[in-house]
Amino acid sequence: MYHIKNFADRLLDAVDQKSSSVVVGLDPDVRKLPEFLIERSQARHGHGLKSLAAAVLDFNTQIMEAIHDIVIAVKPQIAFYEALGIPGLRTLQKTIRVAKSHGLLVIQDAKRGDIGSTAEAYATAHIGFINQGKKRSIFGADAMTVNPLLGTDSIEPFLKRTETQGKGIFVLVKTSNPSSSEIQNLEVITDSERHYLYEVIARLVCRWGKNSIGKRGYSSVGAVVGATFPQEARLIRDLMPQTIFLVPGYGAQGATAQDIVHCFNSDGKGAIVNSSRDIIYAFQKDERMANQSNPDFALAARDSALKMRSEINNALRKAVS
Known about the structure:
The chain is α/β, with parallel strands linked by helices. It is built from 13 helices and 12 strands.
């Protein structure tokens, strides 16, 4: 019988194999793509959404070819693909296929959350399968981000995939944006005790993830915990020792390697760190490419990913020594 490997185990194996905790967000804003890519695509496909979507696929493909041996996963933010309509969604599908051909895990940044049949449909589309003569996936991501504010019944369809299909989810617990505190730091009363809302969600995530703990001791139900709030991250880490953190906020949002150390367990495991703009648009700040009409954006992305991996690994070595 075919054995489906636990997502958390697959993720941690990739971390060990590449000595890396780096995830690259594929958030392709067409206004920031190298102009020569847009022009080349327009020459082939004309003007319109199809041309822009083709340029995005070219951009993503070259970046993944350059970084696949350095990073463990890519994280496409679905909004950038939805903004290009049906051609954009086709590009998302193709991007995921390219990522998998390079052995990269794919975390779909969709932040979905709803109830009943709607939640089931979201889970099927992003990390599930449909049966039309034969079993196949729609987008085929390995994991996705989900919003927990509708409660347990909104999470159950996703949990089913973590427990039976080897998929993963990352539940929003403490996000990296500045105004997250307006809601996530609200104090609530549970069991006659006062807690921050993010603490309550953290405990729910632990409960939701009990049935998908892998051989390496971590659950396939992870948590999104922003690097921009290191003190909160330290508290949440203590609450969730068996949870893998997906950590946004590194680089462009201001967090440093030292800030993200609190997101890891004391042995240097248990977290992966995302960077989007600082890697995929690194060519814009690379002095070697100043005034070039055809900048080697993939090389700049590779150099930036190497630097990020080194900075994180050095900070973790100091923290655990």
